[in-house]
Amino acid sequence: MLSGNLELFALGDVLRFVARSGATGAVNIYRPTEAGRILLADGEVVGASVDTFEAGDVDGAIEAGLRLIEGGGGDFALDIEPVEGPVRLSVEDFLKTVARRRAEWRKIVAAVGSLDGPLLLSPLVPEGASEITLSALEWQVAVSADGQRTLREIAHEAGTSDFEVATAVLAMSNAGLLALAGQADAVEVEEEPAENDDAAHDYDAQTEDAGDEAGDEPEDETEADEGTEDEDLDPADMLRELGETAATRHEQAVRLRSR
Q1: Nearest to 53 by CA among 150, 160, 149
Q2: What is d(CA 217, CA 89) in angstroms, rounded to the nearest whole number?
Q3: DSSP of 55-100
Q4: Is the dihedral of CA 74, 77, 82, 88 positive or negative?
Q5: Residue 205 has what pLDDT?
Q6: What is the rounded average pLDDT of the residues 80-88?
Q7: What residues contact 134, with CB distance under 8 A and at least 6 apart?
Q8: Would you say the C-alpha torsion 217, 219, 221, 226 has a positive or negative sign?
Q9: CA-wise closest residue to 87 among 27, 44, 52, 53
C-alpha cells in the first residue's frame, strides 16, 4: 500500500503518481480537521468526498477535491479497491478544474463576504418587484437564513456543497432578498488560502494555465496514457520518486525566497 505524509508530498503529485500506475482505488486523506478521499479508476479521477458531505454529483466532487487539495498537511494512503463516481477526468484535468473552482470562489467571497457570517432574510420585497421566483435551493436558503445560521451551516443542513449555496446566496443578494453579515471579513477569507503555504504550493504546482506556474512542466498526456500500460509501480519506488520531487521543489522555493 502506498502511503505517506502530505507535509512531504504534495497531494497533486500523489495523484499524478497513482495515475501513472493506472491504479484503481481510493486515495484516503487523513487530517484532524477535514478528512476525505479521492477515487481513481484506471488512473483517472472518478470522484471525491469529504467527511462533511458525500459528493453525489460532479459539482460536489470538484468541491470536495478543492477542500482536500487546499487543506494542506495530514497523511495519505492508497487503498486498492473497486470504485465508481460521478466524474471521469484525467488527474491533470481534475486539478485544473479544481483550480478554476478556486478562482470562482474568490469572486464569490469578494461579493458575499465571510462564509462564516450569519445570513438574514430581508423583510421587504425589493422595490418594484411584483413577484419573486426562487429555485428549490434558494427557497431552502431563504427558510434557513434566520440571522443565526451561516452559509456553511446551511449547506451542511441542505446536504450540498458550500459552492452551490454560495452561488444561490449571491443571486439572492443581488436581487435584494438577503442581508449579508460579515462583509468586513471578506478580504480575510479570500486571503486565507494564500497564507497556507502547503495549499498555495500545491495549487501553484497544478495550475500552469491559471498563471500560477511553479516551475514544473506538466506531465505529457501521452506519457500519462503510456503509464497506464506499464506494470504496477512498487510503492517504495513511488515514495522515492515523490521524495525527489518534493526535495526539488523545496530547493526551488529556497532559491525564490533568496532572490
Answers
A1: 160
A2: 20
A3: --SHHHHHHHHHHHHHH--SEEEEEE-----S--B-HHHHHHHHHH
A4: positive
A5: 42
A6: 93
A7: 142, 172
A8: positive
A9: 44
Return the sign of the alpha-carbon dihedral for residues 141, 143, 144, 146: positive
On whether the CB atoms of residues 46 and 82 are closer than 8 A, the answer is no
For residue 250, CA distances in Å to 8, 214, 254 come to: 10, 11, 6
Q: Is CATH 1.10.10 the classification given to domain 115-181?
A: yes
**Cα within 13 Å of Cα(4), Cβ side:** 21
Q: What is the pLDDT of residue 227?
A: 44
> What is the tens place of the pLDDT at every residue in 20-52?
999 999 999 999 888 999 999 999 999 999 987
Helix (H, G, I), strand (E, B) or coil at 176: coil
Domain ranges of the chain: 3-104+194-220, 115-181
Q: How far apart are CA 256 and CA 167, in angstroms?
A: 37
C-alpha cell belonging to residue 171:
443571486
Share of the chain above pLDDT 70, in %: 68
CA gap 34, 170 in Å, rounded: 26
Q: Is the pLDDT of residue 229 over 60?
A: no
- Distance of alpha carbon 243 from alpha carbon 9, whole angstroms: 7
SS3 49: strand
